Amino acid sequence: MGVDDALVPGERPRRTSPRVVLVHTATFRQARQLVPVLIPVAAVVGLDDGLLTIVVMAVVITVLSAAAASLSWWRFGYADRATAVVVTRGLLARSVRTVPNDRIRGVEVEAPPLHRLLGLVRVRIDAAAGAVATDAEELVVDGVPRAEGDRLRARLLARRPAGPPAPGDDGRPEPEPAEEEIARFDPRWLLYAPLVGSYLVVPVAAVGTLVRLVQELPDAVVPDLAGPEPSARLLVLTLVAAVPLLALAAVVGAAVVNWRYRLVRRGGSLVAVRGLLTRRHTELEVDRVRGGTLSEGLGMRWVRAARVNALVTGLGQANRRGQLLPLGPRTEALRLLGRLVEDPGPLTGHPPAALRRRLFRALAAGLAVTAGGVWAAATLGWWWVPAAGVVLTVLGVPMGIGRYRALGHGAGPRSFSVRSGWVVREQVVLQRRAVVGWEVRQSVLQRRAGLATVVACVGAGSGGYAAVDMAAADVPGFTTAASSGTWAGTLTPG
Predict the structure, then answer these.
(1) CA 347: distance to chain centroid?
(2) Contact call for residues 426 and 419 (beta carbons, < 8 A)
(3) Packing angle between helix 35-45 and helix 51-74, nearest 10 degrees?
(4) Maximum Cα interatomic distance, the chain, rounded to a whole number of Å
(5) pLDDT tens digit string along 53-88?
(6) Where would I find the H helices in 218-278?
(7) Which letter, b or e, does each residue of 107-128 get, where b requires 16 or more Cβ atoms within 10 Å of its Cβ?
(8) What is the 3-state secondary structure (H, E, C) of 359-423?
(9) 99 bridge partner residues
(10) Residue in 230, 192, 435, 426 with CA at minimum distance from that of residue 326
């Protein structure tokens, strides 16, 4: 819709709560970009790096933040109509964005700590953005009371005009849909967190930042515990102490994100609620779910744990918003995945030629380092280089075999599945109706080996899911069995 269609003469848009000005002032949301500008201004004015300068800059930034937050609140408005939601913003350059209700893919209500303190929530409305940039794929209504956030969420996902519920046969309003609990996070599952890379990234980054900060501090502030040259014993003790601390940090991080996680079905929606500091309430329409993914990292497979994500048409940030089981036993993950889409049955393995390709790729780096290391050892005396190459070559064997064993595909009456990956093994199960096209890729080496890579093009998740290095002769049969119509694949040369 254009701007003229979005604006109705005489219509008064809704305003967010004025309390959101305090939130944006405290977080410097609108004034963050002013900090890099104020520093050179202070240098030009002649302010030094003393305490007075810090106080003056803090006061100036706070005042500017409050002014920017007030102007942003004053010029922001939203309207939820019978057919669309409209958001207007901007001081000098006014922006009006209109999204039809039938383009809305999900609604997330979140309450960060400051919002919860003031009784406010933030509503994220995910829409099929089309040509809109990825970072603008959602509408955000920040700073409404909890009751208004719940009303807006229910109103947009129901896609019906605002007002009292429709009366039933007896003239009374229809009751609220019954709530069916599908999954609940067990605190014992937090013990899986140290084996998940995403939960280890934050503590590792925090340790790196702390080490860098300590290095920048004056020597008089930091005690000299290691001496001029740290001993090997101190380094070993540091590593031994770091491992349990990182594991504990991963568990704490997982608990903060997934605290009191529940997944329920309420009418035609899947509702996921989670979070300790920031409480998130994500709602997805069941009718737009096209399948799911079962993800198992290398460490998770050792303890038979997995994660489940829903594949929803047009959903932005699907890795976060579509997450239905953040972490849990593989049996629980398979049960939940079976609730999303029908199991297509056992997977078919790929031919031995695919194993040879996996082994060649896994061994190539180690063999190259070994060959170069022989020359380096003979001319420079670097005997550690060929030794490292031999280690890489030996490790490449289980890596190649593991990547081959992860390959598989299968098709059932109403769904199909593809699987690949070694560090993170991912099995995708999709409804047949989700397929909008097929793409078949063959490189020169694949053609000689009688292999092909088949990509199912869908309108959910990443947009395409591949069966890597399957037998070329099996391609027509698989694509026909895994789609609702006749196979019409496109062959793309490598």
Answers:
(1) 27
(2) yes
(3) 140
(4) 94
(5) 667 777 877 888 888 889 888 989 998 888 888 888
(6) 232-258
(7) bbbbbbebbeeeebbbbbbbbb
(8) HHHHHHHHHHHHHHHHHHHHHHCCCHHHHHHHHHHHHHHHHHHHHHHHCEEEECCCEEEEEECCC
(9) 85
(10) 192
Q: Which residue has the higher pLDDT, 94 or 181?
A: 181
The CA–CA distances, whole Å, from 472 to 246, 357, 477 equal 46, 15, 10
**Can you tell me the distance from the alpha carbon of 434 to that of 313, in angstroms, rounded to the nearest whole number?**
9
| Cβ atoms < 10 Å from Cβ of 421 | 17
Contact yes or no for 117/132 (Cβ under 8 A): no
Cα–Cα distance measured from residue 395 to residue 30, given in angstroms and rounded to the nearest whole number:
51
* 97, 90 Cβ separation under 8 angstroms: no
Write down the pTM of the prediction.
0.77
Mode of pairing for the β-strands spanning 490-493 and 269-274: unpaired
Cα–Cα distance, 226 to 219 (Å, whole number): 13
Q: What is the pLDDT of residues 185-242, one digit of tens each?
A: 999 999 999 988 888 887 777 777 776 766 655 555 555 555 555 566 766 777 777 7
